[in-house]
Amino acid sequence: MKNITEIKEYAKEYSVPIIMDDSIDFICNYIREYNVQTVLELGTGIGYSAIRFANVRDDIFVSTIEIDIERYQQAVRNINDNQLMSRITIYLGNALSYTFKEKFDLIFIDAAKSQYINFFEKYKNNLAENGAIISDNLFFHGMVDNPNSTQNYSTIKLIRKIRKYITFLKENKEFETIFYSIGDGISVSTLLP
Ligand code: SAM
């Protein structure tokens, strides 16, 4: 049996990426404040954030998708251990090729950073009318503002993609985006009237 604290400790010990404390608190508050009932999460990891979302209230339903089979299996175990299988549905697959028919009050983008524009463009059609798309890791550990802090070519490429995503959000004609200096950088995008 792994409770939420044990899942977090496990993630730390085994270097499994999970959302930062300030960021998850921010999103849980958003869920509370805007009475969010349905969440779609791209990037389950081992289920930590999905469990936190579902724990906000017992009328919240989370759909979450993970590409990595080992993480998926671990997430299934963690969600089972927390008796949340009836409210959290986990899918195994690539979020870029999956199709969800439903609309969601909140879409949380937390999968491959290089694909954020593609995720946004694909999943904006799954957003309920007054919903929001929240994206995490826009600072990418402070490197987005300090691109010279790394010489690693794939990291530099990733930083460029995140910067491109930020510009995409700023220039978007359909959505208004507010950026928050919380955790590793969060954005909240809502449809313009
Ligand atoms: N949201 C999780 C949490 O805070 O507990 C952490 C997710 S972790 C930062 C990102 C996850 O996205 C990884 O487990 C990775 O395998 C998954 N991922 C990356 N690309 C993906 C894709 N195209 N489709 C689905 N999952 C993907």
Largest β sheet strand count, sense and barrel closure: 7 strands, mixed
**Could you tell me the strand content as a percent range?**
15-25%
Which CATH C-level class of the domain at 4-138 is it? Alpha Beta
Query: Helix share of residues?
Result: 25-40%
Dominant shape: globular
> What small molecules are bound in this structure?
S-adenosylmethionine
Number of helices: 6
Specify the oligomeric state: single chain
* Name of the CATH homologous superfamily of the domain at 4-138: Vaccinia Virus protein VP39
Mind telling me which CATH architecture of the domain at 4-138 this is? Answer: 3-Layer(aba) Sandwich
The number of strands is 7
Helix-strand layout with pairing:
Elements: H1 4-13, H2 21-33, E1 38-42, H3 48-54, E2 61-66, H4 69-81, E3 88-92, E4 104-109, H5 116-123, E5 127-136, H6 153-170, E6 175-180, E7 186-191
Parallel strand pairs: 1-2, 1-4, 2-3, 4-5
Antiparallel strand pairs: 5-7, 6-7
S-adenosylmethionine is lined by residues 17-19, 42-43, 45, 48-49, 65-68, 71, 94-96, 110-112.
